[in-house]
Amino acid sequence: MKKRTSLFIGMLVFSNTIAQVGINTPTPNSSANLHVANSTTIRGTLLNPITTVQRNSIASPATGLIVYDTDQKCLMTNNGTPSVPNWQCIGGNSGNNAVSYSKHFHYAFPGTIPTSAGDNSARSGTLSNALTTMSNWLQANDPSQVAEIPIVDGIRLDIVFYSTSTTGGAVLYRPLIVNTNATSKNLVGVTRADISGLYQWPIPNILPGNNGYLNIDSDMILGWGNQGYLETSISTFRITGDDGSLYRATFYGYRDYINSSSTGKHQIHLILEKFSPQSGGLHN
């Protein structure tokens, strides 16, 4: 016990004197607080791999805190403050109107997905495992794809199946923005949709935390048309109280159906983008 205490005290004295830590090196670089060097076996450095939900649950994350987000598949740093975090992937474009996050998800769904016309008929609410959403279907049938669904800052895209057809009939779904954060978010923006004509709706809506959703097309439904025909919905919004970032969610749907003997697949494309503000941009 005496030897361990002496060793511990010695480490504290050494750390306070040198103010640096070297792993596999007795001479850490003079510019580094922590210097991790290779040993005889070449290895990498693993930094705290956590999910987006776990990242968002960190209480008062320090500015500059770094984690690896397994959902975003990137190293992320908090460029905000402990009270107002602003997590961004490291290595993104830092220029004007920078796209700090962009992900395109495409999946070809069969025509046998169970649906319910009552699912998510309201404009907003809270998701449950009982609903026929894209994420629930993937979790049950192709779970490796769940992590590929676009999500940034805890805002995730999803769809709920309203009706499907194996004979070339209407294939309908509702496009959803889902808040996976523990706290609610206030979204302000606009949706523009091409649904056999152009429509536009405002998005003033408080998204509840813990999988609260918003049907961005109000009470309308997007449909898969025949091959080559796309029904499109694009939402641009911001989250009040954040750093001024702009978000854009795009939904595309079409059908591979050719004839009764070649019914094809239901194709869905989801694109989520985040545009971080440039440095400055504030008049004193």
Write a structural description.
The chain is mostly beta strands. The chain folds into three domains: 2-36, no CATH class; 49-91; 99-276, no CATH class. Helices cover 11% and strands 39% of the residues. It has three helices and 19 strands. The protein has helices at 2-18, 52-56, 134-141, and strands at residues 21-23, 34-36, 49-50, 66-69, 74-78, 87-89, 98-109, 124-126, 151-152, 155-163, 171-179, 185-194, 198-202, 205-207, 212-215, 222-224, 231-239, 246-255, 266-276. It starts with a helix and ends in an 8-residue tail after the last strand.
Low-confidence stretches: 1-16, 93-97
Biggest sheet overview? 7 strands, antiparallel
Tally the helices.
Answer: 3
Q: How many angstroms separate the termini?
A: 60 Å
- The percent range for helix content is 10-25%
The count of domains is 3
